[in-house]
Design goal:
By secondary structure, the chain is α/β, with parallel strands linked by helices. The protein contains eleven helices and nine strands. Strands 1, 2, 3, 4, 5, 6, 7, 8 and 9 form a nine-stranded mixed beta sheet that branches. The termini are far apart.
């Protein structure tokens, strides 16, 4: 009889990409290692860090055999780091977390249970809270139905999906740094079913150094790009028009006036009840243009 595998494949792979994230990294890793669901591996992808990140990763790897470290040199960017991590994944269920966020203790347990209870679904997701740099809760994000994915990222920051999703989609698009997650969900929605948990399972940190804040304009413009791609594939005229109008009004950084105009042209009735919002949107971006020209 062959001896048992001393290190069998885990049920879940958690990827944690990090580039110079020492400020909050320890808390992020600790929140994963403290999960009530224990059958996982944590693949930390050091994406060319030059701060104390490598030392923090080594300390956790020495203290817990579930922690694995992969080092990218040179830096690949977030989607590239994610692809590096998932290429080494052994779990049949995948998720990832950021170096500045915190998973609530039952996050993995609840998401695994959701997929186990819904064998036809491939992706489970949940609500989350927003925290500041000091860890104080400043807001709550109740995620919407996946069927509304064209209206915005309805999946959010707390999720788990089957390895089949990673394989089918070919991972994250490395050209879409900043909206790689939304692009991933949009592509996934064409092929897979989702299940939603009405539970707060994650703490998403907003702070001055976060990618979302530092690269806001580029992120909004990349978001417009992938939305136009998806909307061109939407056969339902009413759904396409609604998504164009909602996304046309969604950004206070990127005007998206062409999307707004096209949506209203497809379905003029969408203007009813939205006139004030449309006028505020136009006025806001008009002021932005004038300010840039005179500033």
């Amino acid at each position: 009889m062959e001896p048992p595998d001393p290190d069998p494949a885990p049920r879940v792979t958690v990827v944690l990409p990090v580039h110079n994230g020492a400020a909050f990294l320890d808390a992020a890793i600790t929140s994963i290692l403290a999960q009530t669901f224990r059958d996982f591996e944590l693949i930390c992808v050091d994406d060319g860090s030059t701060d104390d990140t490598p030392a923090i990763l080594r300390r956790h790897a020495l203290g817990d055999r579930r922690v694995r470290i992969i080092t990218n040199s040179p830096n690949k960017g977030l989607p590239g780091a994610l692809n590096t991590g998932f290429a080494a994944a052994r779990g049949t269920l995948h998720t990832w977390t950021s170096d500045d966020n915190i998973a609530r203790p039952d996050m993995l347990a609840r998401l695994v249970a959701a997929l186990d209870a819904a064998p036809d679904a491939s992706i489970a997701y949940a609500d989350f809270s927003v925290i500041d740099a000091e860890g104080r809760v400043t807001g709550f994000q109740k995620m919407g139905p996946a069927s509304d994915i064209l209206l915005g990222n309805r999946i959010g920051a707390a999720f788990l999906y089957r390895a089949e999703v990673t394989r089918t989609l070919g991972g994250y698009d490395e050209a879409l740094f900043g909206v790689e997650d939304y692009d991933f969900w949009l592509r996934a929605a064409r092929r897979f079913d989702f299940v939603k948990l009405d539970e707060d399972l994650y703490l998403y940190r907003r702070h001055e150094a976060s990618l979302t804040d530092r690269r806001a304009l580029r992120i909004h413009r990349l978001g417009s790009h992938i939305l136009r791609r998806e909307l061109a594939l939407e056969p339902d005229r009413k759904r396409r028009a609604r998504a164009l109008v909602e996304q046309g009004l969604a950004s206070r950084i990127d005007a998206r006036l062409d999307m707004l105009a096209l949506g209203l042209a497809l379905s003029p009735g969408l203007a009813r009840g939205r006139i004030n919002a449309i006028l505020r949107h136009l006025a806001h971006h008009f002021v932005r243009v004038i300010t840039r020209k005179t500033g």
